[in-house]
Design a protein that fits this description.
Layout: H1 2-9, H2 12-36, H3 53-69, H4 74-111, H5 131-148
Helix pairs in contact: 2-3, 2-5, 3-4, 3-5
Length: about 150
């Protein structure tokens, strides 16, 4: 069991992928500070925003696997397919869900503007990413993996 833990802790590709995600989250914080002129730590745990930390994570993982196992390896193919699914979900499905939440919140606001109250909380609107946020996150992940591995 200790050998397994030791191997996990020594997995350089895994840690580079997590580092890419953490760096993307820190960039989100810096961008939010520049945009709103105040410190908002919630940005570090919220979904959405520039750049996509999910995209940075999975592209750093795929790049790391490609660099270590080879670009023609089955492991690289699996990592790329996984990355594509995650990035498609971030820019497609979750982005669409966020747009639907925004419209539903607007409908509820307009419907209840006469003083009625709604027992449920507002729906979370910032769920996904724009395509540019995914592209920037992906480029960040690839760059970090190339530098660190």
């Amino acid at each position: 069991m200790m050998d397994g833990l030791r191997e996990l802790l020594a997995n350089h590709v895994l840690w580079v992928a997590f580092a890419a995600s953490a760096i993307a989250q820190m960039l989100k914080l810096l961008i939010d500070i520049a945009k709103h002129r105040k410190l908002n730590f919630r940005v570090l745990v919220e979904t959405g925003g520039m750049p996509s930390s999910h995209s940075a994570l999975v592209t750093a993982l795929a790049t790391g696997v490609g660099l270590q196992r080879g670009w023609d390896s089955i492991e690289f193919a699996i990592a790329v397919v996984f990355a594509c699914i995650v990035m498609y979900d971030a820019a497609g499905v979750r982005q669409a869900a966020g747009k639907q939440a925004r419209i539903l919140n607007q409908i509820v606001d307009e419907f209840f503007q006469d003083g009625h109250e709604l027992a449920e909380a507002r729906l979370k609107e910032l769920l996904g990413h724009t395509p540019i946020q995914v592209i920037v996150g992906s480029a960040l992940g690839v760059a970090i993996a190339w530098i660190a591995i």
